[in-house]
Amino acid sequence: MDSLNFIEFNLIDLIDILLMAFLLYNVYKLVKGTVAINIFIGIVIVYLIWQLTAVLKMELLSNVFGKFIGVGVFGLIVVFHQEIRKFLLMLGSTNFASKRNFVRHFKFLKQDQLNTVVDVESVVNACKKMAKAKTGALIVFGRNNSLDFVKNTGDKMNIEITQPILESIFYKNSPLHDGAVIVEDNYIVATRVILPVSDERNIPQRYGLRHRAAIGITEKTDALALVVSEETGHISYIKNGEFVSFTDFDEMTTMIKRDLA
Ligand SMILES: Nc1ncnc2c1ncn2[C@@H]1O[C@H](COP(=O)(O)OP(=O)(O)OP(=O)(O)O)[C@@H](O)[C@H]1O
């Protein structure tokens, strides 16, 4: 039967499927937890129906779905422009192949090579202390995307994270207190960093530049951000350009650890 020819399978098909699965998995990881996930699932469904109608030679339906997908590509570029940007950044990122993903899998070969586990407790404790004292702070955790483009706006550092260090950096009279701190692999790698500010109109007026900067960097990259408000002493956890809600700081700590894993 001609229509079942597609069942013939060779090595190239296997590689094709594996690469496609890898691509889809990474796209899924990017959009997971965002509103884009529903659009992503919708597209996958439309695509699968299109392929099915094509294989079964249902000319009319296949034509309609084909046209829809053809035009839809441009719509997708607009809808997913942030995710596409993050994905391309991830592919070209120096961090992607270097540390978190690649080395971690081979960590057993060299036990003490990298200290990749961020001491989240110390960071959260420092934030709690700063919140009490109404000291503003902005801490960004790098993940897969390289943050080199923002690190260059501040001072490069290499300080292992401790609670007192973080508190002293953001202490009001400290020369380093302005801007954001970038954290990678349990090290403060940059201070006084100027982040891209989000121009999203839906952010409530009460949030100023510190919060907009946290939203901006987490929209443009897969980084995570913690903000301590100087005005209210409120601590916000921001991911994918949105405020993450949590009931207590233990829950927030667990979420950050999970997101950094
Ligand atoms: N683009 C930026 N990147 C990094 N840090 C920034 C940026 N813009 C402002 N900041 C930091 O935020 C501080 C000003 O915060 P602002 O009062 O405007 O924000 P906010 O969101 O209202 O925060 P808060 O609740 O702490 O007042 C600045 O002193 C600076 O340290």
Automatic annotation (TrEMBL):
A molecular function (GO) term: diadenylate cyclase activity
Keyword Chloroplast: no
EC annotation from Swiss-Prot or TrEMBL: 2.7.7.85
EC top class, as a word: transferase
Family: Belongs to the adenylate cyclase family. DacA/CdaA subfamily.
Function as written in the Swiss-Prot or TrEMBL entry: Catalyzes the condensation of 2 ATP molecules into cyclic di-AMP (c-di-AMP), a second messenger used to regulate differing processes in different bacteria.
Name assigned to this protein: Diadenylate cyclase
Organism: Abyssalbus ytuae
Gene (UniProt): cdaA
